[in-house]
Specification:
By secondary structure, the protein is mostly beta strands. The chain has a single domain (about 1-180), classed as Porin (Beta Barrel). It contains 1 helix and 10 strands; from the N terminus they run H-E-E-E-E-E-E-E-E-E-E. Strands 1, 2, 3, 4, 5, 6, 7, 8, 9 and 10 form a 10-stranded antiparallel β-sheet that branches. A hairpin with a 6-residue loop joins strand 4 and strand 5 (about 80-95). The chain is elongated. The protein starts with a helix and ends with a strand.
């Protein structure tokens, strides 16, 4: 049910918007040079941990705010709301071509994860506040308003409620696609 609602919301936003055009970039080469965004704001879908809606806003040529909301179901029978926000730095483009750039990014951020564990005999509802360090790459197309990303996110969670432990180190993995509005 959640994934259908997320998909319907993204489709409604995309259908009601006007087409965006990415600004062209200089000629291609193998990376090692600074990345400079040619887009400003995008929304899309993310799969993995979490499964939901993802957004990204470039407020500077190489820095962005990344955010998401969804369901994090990766812990067996635990499922619940996962909200996060990150400050991302894009220090270099690993590959630059006429069609796309492949920037590497690293960031810092936080998350809130409230879940219900249905796999235990006794209720195990809890909330976690986490410190995130996303590491990823983005296939950033030059001539169409899309990007595809993949990331690994080490997280240090602090739990409240009936969790089995109070502090836990976790590694989330996700991938997604975004449509850029400008």
């Amino acid at each position: 049910m959640t994934s259908k609602l997320v998909l319907a919301a993204v489709a409604a936003v995309a259908a009601s918007s006007t087409a965006a055009h990415a600004r062209p970039r200089p000629d291609g080469h193998l990376g090692g040079e600074a990345f400079e965004a040619n887009k400003t704001f995008g929304l899309g879908l993310e799969v993995g941990a979490p499964l939901g809606i993802n957004g990204k806003w470039f407020f500077a040529p190489d820095r962005a705010l990344d955010f998401g909301i969804g369901d994090d179901y990766t812990y067996g029978n635990r499922s619940g709301l996962h909200v996060y926000g990150d400050l991302l730095f894009h220090p270099t483009a690993l590959v630059k071509t006429d069609a796309f750039e492949l920037p590497f990014y690293v960031g810092v951020g936080g998350r809130l994860w409230s879940f219900n564990d249905t796999g235990r005999a006794a209720p195990n509802d809890a909330t976690a506040f986490g410190f995130r360090v996303p590491l990823g790459v983005s296939l950033d197309f030059n001539n169409i308003p899309l990007d595809v990303f993949g990331q690994v996110v080490p997280t240090l969670d602090f739990f409240t409620g009936n969790a089995a432990h109070s502090v836990f180190v976790d590694v989330d993995v996700s991938a997604g696609v975004r449509y850029w509005f400008n």
